[in-house]
């Protein structure tokens, strides 16, 4: 009873005193200095400039588990908190990223797909290298065994698909525990792809999960799929990086539908957002965007509710709507909603 009362009091304080609510930003990288992969690799000069900005800007770089635990327990995250994550465990993490982060004494987390490491595939770190990093304080977490998309169900019924997902997550977790002593249940969706069914299964296995849809983590973020800012891809310049790490989470209390999977015939998808009644962003200045289309209409439904629909169908595959609003201090409030768009139905045989 006392614990429930304390939680209720904390929730009241967070509503009444919005200044107590701050947001964390999770950065996502893949490769470092690997120019052959421009879509997923960041140049070393650009990476060093980003780290320098974090240091000079007074940001607090924390272990990812600290933000995950705050989400689980409902605790606020101190302002200007950043966690650094890297997906896939490529060799350039060991050769290029780790020395630069170690020199600053900064923690980071590597999400490992374990099968490529077990098979000794070129371009990936070895378990021995990861043990060396873990002994120095680097954290490792679950990216599945094979890195296959967990959304696709090639010839599988519901039971077979659920069994495969469990084998992917629990098999990878067992390897991480055996090789590196990993016990924390943190999981990054391969390719950032998830839907409500997959997210529910992952959460049911006890994992806090992470996507690749941009945005800070805030009080209303969902532990089934926490957002991360992909900053290692081509085209992320210094100004854009500074804007993203300074962003706050748009206080989206409800998103309908939450499920990213778009049913056949519902493209472009219709998104309804309800903002929480807290100080911060001006709802009248909310602007939303769709990839390849730029700004899209925002329909105000009354109060703090809005509806967003792209002007034209989104291309098949991964897509997103991004909504932002300026804050009084020049920092932006940010929310991205991912979509999984089905292929267009084929016509009748000619």
Short description:
One of its GO terms (cellular component) is extracellular region. One of its GO terms (molecular function) is hydrolase activity, acting on carbon-nitrogen (but not peptide) bonds. By secondary structure, the protein is of the alpha/beta class.
Number of helical segments with 4 or more residues: 9
Largest sheet: 6 strands, parallel
Helix percentage: 25-40%
Category by helix and strand content? alpha/beta
Radius of gyration, in angstroms, nearest whole number: 20 Å
CATH architecture of the largest domain: Alpha-Beta Barrel
Going by CATH, the homologous superfamily of the largest domain would be: Glycoside hydrolase/deacetylase
Cα distance spanning the termini:
68 Å
Number of domains: 2
| CATH fold group of the largest domain | TIM Barrel
Return the string of H and E elements.
HEEEHEHEHEHHEHEHEEHEEEEEEEEE
Uncertain regions spanning at least 5 consecutive residues: 1-21
How would you describe this protein?
- It is a single chain.
- By secondary structure, this protein is of the alpha/beta class.
- It folds into 2 domains: 2-248, Glycoside hydrolase/deacetylase (TIM Barrel, Alpha-Beta Barrel), CATH 3.20.20; 254-341, Immunoglobulin-like (Sandwich), CATH 2.60.40.1220.
- 30% of the residues lie in helices and 24% in strands.
- It contains 9 helices and 19 strands.
- It has helices spanning 2-16, 44-56, 64-73, 91-104, 114-118, 127-135, 158-180, 196-204, 238-245; strands spanning 24-29, 31-32, 41-42, 60-61, 81-87, 109-112, 139-142, 186-188, 208-210, 229-230, 248-249, 252-256, 270-275, 287-290, 294-296, 298-302, 305-309, 317-326, 332-341.
- The strands form 5 sheets. Strands 1, 4, 5, 6, 7 and 10 form a 6-stranded parallel beta sheet that branches. A 5-stranded mixed beta sheet has the order 11-19-18-14-15, with no helix packed on it. A 4-stranded antiparallel beta sheet has the order 12-13-17-16, with no helix packed on it.
- It is globular.
- The termini are far apart.
- Residues 1-21 have low confidence and may be disordered.
- It is found in: Secreted.
- One of its GO terms (biological process) is carbohydrate metabolic process.
- Residues 80-350 form the NodB homology domain.
- Its main location: secreted.
- GO terms for molecular function: hydrolase activity, acting on carbon-nitrogen (but not peptide) bonds.
